[in-house]
Design a protein that fits this description.
Blueprint (H helix, E strand, L loop, with lengths): L14 H28 L3 E4 L5 E2 L8 H6 L5 E7 L4 E3 L1 E2 L2 E2 L10 E11 L8 E7 L4 E5 L5 H7 L9 E13 L18 E14 L5 E6 L5 E3 L2
Antiparallel strand pairs: 1-2, 1-11, 3-4, 3-7, 5-6, 7-8, 8-9, 10-11, 11-12, 12-13
């Protein structure tokens, strides 16, 4: 007669039952890993490997992978258009301009142009977000933009108040939780060199010397939030 488990009064788990339970847990974990990987890629997060430097991007980046790798793993590139017809691109050949190089006195519009395609019937597949400098209105080509965002971005800037550009990029690069090199789990920790990479963009304007502003946050998949 089997001895009862002293904790709950049930028979102790047999080796066969333990094996079956471990297999179920492992299969469940593999499914969860695949699911979260898919969801991260859909959110615009890139997965990389420290040893090789290889980065896995969402499929929407495929037409622009060469530019993505060449221009520092950016989801968007900015382009400034001036009133006199001139332009200033973030990258000119191998030289990267800072946003502080933009002549705001001459500025007509500033565009953020994605290095990924958006599913659309439009001829232009990229997502383009444009700040119209004279009016302060922000407009969108492609992307799912909520009505609240559209209303917020369609409000003109205050007249007779000088504004200054707000353009920031916040890089997020996170690595796997380190595991003790002496741990007996180390040989089985297959994703030990994996890291996550993405940027968030802060885009808009602010009235000089005040807290009055219109700022949006652009996530790595092009989704837009109202900034604080």
């Amino acid at each position: 007669m089997s001895k009862l488990n002293t904790i709950n009064g049930s028979p102790p788990e047999t080796t066969g039952e333990k094996v079956d339970s471990l297999i179920r847990r492992r299969e469940s974990a593999k499914f969860e890993l695949a699911k979260t990987t898919k969801q991260l890629l859909e959110a615009g997060v890139k997965l990389g490997h420290q040893e090789t430097g290889q980065i896995t991007c969402p499929a929407s980046f495929s037409p622009y992978l060469e530019q993505y790798e060449k221009y520092g793993n950016l989801e968007f590139l900015w382009e400034a258009k001036y009133k006199d017809g001139g332009t200033l691109n973030q990258w000119e050949g191998s030289v990267e301009h800072l946003w502080t190089d933009i002549d705001q006195k001459r500025l007509q519009e500033l565009r953020l142009i994605s290095l990924f395609d958006y599913p659309t019937t439009n001829q232009e597949k990229r997502q383009i977000i444009t700040l119209h400098w004279q009016t302060g209105i922000i407009s969108f080509l492609n992307g799912i933009i909520s009505q609240d965002i559209k209303t917020y971005c369609s409000t003109p800037r205050p007249k007779n108040k000088p504004i200054q550009l707000v353009l920031k990029k916040r890089l997020r690069r996170s690595f796997n939780t380190p595991i003790d090199e002496n741990s007996d789990l180390l040989p089985y920790f297959t994703s030990v060199d994996e890291f996550y990479l993405y940027n968030r963009w802060i885009f808009g304007w602010q009235v000089k010397g005040t807290k009055e502003k219109k700022v949006i946050i652009i996530n790595p998949n092009g989704e837009v939030e109202i900034g604080e």
